[in-house]
Amino acid sequence: MDCSCGRKGAVAALISAAAVISVCVTLMVSLAVRKQSLEDLAPRPSFYSGGDVLDYLLNLRRIDRKDGLLVTWYHAANNKSSMEEALEADVMALESDVTLEGYNTPNETEKPIMAHPPDVYSDNTLQDWLKAVLRLSNKVIKLDFKNIRTVGPSLDILVKTSSELIIDRPVWLNADILKGPNVPFDIAVNASQFLTLVQKKFPNCTISPGWTTLYLPLFPNKTYTQNMVEEMHTLVGKLPQQITFPVRAVMAKPAWTHLSWLLSQSKRYSLTLWQGKTDPVRVEDLLFIRNNSKPEQIYYDLYEPVLSQFKKIALYQPEPSAKYGWRS
Ligand SMILES: *[C@@H]1O[C@H](CO)[C@@H](O)[C@H](O)[C@H]1NC(C)=O
Ligand SMILES: *[C@@H]1O[C@H](CO)[C@@H](O)[C@H](O)[C@H]1NC(C)=O
Ligand SMILES: *[C@@H]1O[C@H](CO)[C@@H](O)[C@H](O)[C@H]1NC(C)=O
Ligand SMILES: *[C@@H]1O[C@H](CO)[C@@H](O)[C@H](O)[C@H]1NC(C)=O
Ligand SMILES: *[C@@H]1O[C@H](CO)[C@@H](O)[C@H](O)[C@H]1NC(C)=O
Ligand SMILES: *[C@@H]1O[C@H](CO)[C@@H](O)[C@H](O)[C@H]1NC(C)=O
């Protein structure tokens, strides 16, 4: 091979490399644009309903590390207009409430609908909700059951739906199954019935078993006890599923000894901190909890402005320019 030929070859190689690169760049740009507009509709990695939310969102590249604080929620995505708003919103997980049509009235039917008590009617059934959410989004599903009679018929619908559409994302099944802080009467969903139904009908899920709660502003220290968390661990400790315990955020810090004991009992356990609409959740309490747990152990389903205030501090990382002193 003579020298000029080699040079010619190199030039040709360079030109073709440049062509390949420019094609690649064009493709990447157009893919990025497509990704933005079709984000929820793009083909997605296969996943399953019992899978971990953080693994799922990592696969989708919605988050870049396993941290529950990065997961964003839409609350009470129940009736059609709320559901549609939620589907369009840039959130990763939908929390919705299920009950039976006409629940506890003479007109009660076996049809699960999307409504929060005291509502017992809705323009949205669970069946329609599932179809819309599965077809139009890749959002994580959390269903909150307020009574035991709703659970069986709802799980039947999940099973039926999974035979028609692939449920390619995590599904959380939530119910308050134990009597919790400050609640005078036992209004919990029957624990053994709930857990048995889930095992029997739709075991491929994450279970979200909670305590009924009442927050008393005058007694901010009345909260979850060691007995409560031990009772819960006794109920779910041997189950195969991942478990996330919903915990009322305003009561979490004074109960931290007990909640962190609970977390330490199993790698399958996490907490989901939630906020009552008017609960005075304090950023410093959240920071304390964040500081004393692993990022993948806690989800935060909280209202603004507390959520943003908390995130700003908790997720703050000094910019490199600041670190190197390029700014005065
Ligand atoms: C749907 O729910 C939202 C939020 O709860 C409520 O503001 C709205 O009035 C409801 N719409 C209908 C048609 O019921
Ligand atoms: C139950 O249904 C009957 C007949 O359809 C109706 O007249 C009645 O108002 C309903 N009751 C409630 C509580 O919705
Ligand atoms: C839950 O239901 C079972 C029957 O399925 C019953 O034996 C048990 O007493 C109930 N538990 C509570 C706390 O009501
Ligand atoms: C759930 O489904 C996945 C994928 O089909 C499977 O690998 C897994 O074993 C199932 N888990 C349970 C608890 O059934
Ligand atoms: C009770 O609450 C106060 C104020 O929130 C706090 O400083 C104190 O440590 C709490 N005591 C216990 C036993 O949790
Ligand atoms: C977080 O933990 C570190 C070390 O344990 C401690 O120095 C810091 O004060 C804690 N911050 C908060 C907000 O609790």
UniProtKB/TrEMBL annotation:
<feature type="transmembrane region" description="Helical">
    <location>
        <begin position="12"/>
        <end position="33"/>
    </location>
</feature>
<dbReference type="GO" id="GO:0016020">
    <property type="term" value="C:membrane"/>
</dbReference>
<dbReference type="GO" id="GO:0005615">
    <property type="term" value="C:extracellular space"/>
</dbReference>
<dbReference type="InterPro" id="IPR019356">
    <property type="entry name" value="Menorin_dom"/>
</dbReference>
<protein>
    <recommendedName>
        <fullName>Protein FAM151A</fullName>
    </recommendedName>
</protein>
<comment type="similarity">
    <text>Belongs to the menorin family.</text>
</comment>
<keyword id="KW-1133">Transmembrane helix</keyword>
<feature type="domain" description="Menorin-like">
    <location>
        <begin position="67"/>
        <end position="306"/>
    </location>
</feature>
<keyword id="KW-0472">Membrane</keyword>
<keyword id="KW-0812">Transmembrane</keyword>
<dbReference type="Pfam" id="PF10223">
    <property type="entry name" value="Menorin_N"/>
</dbReference>
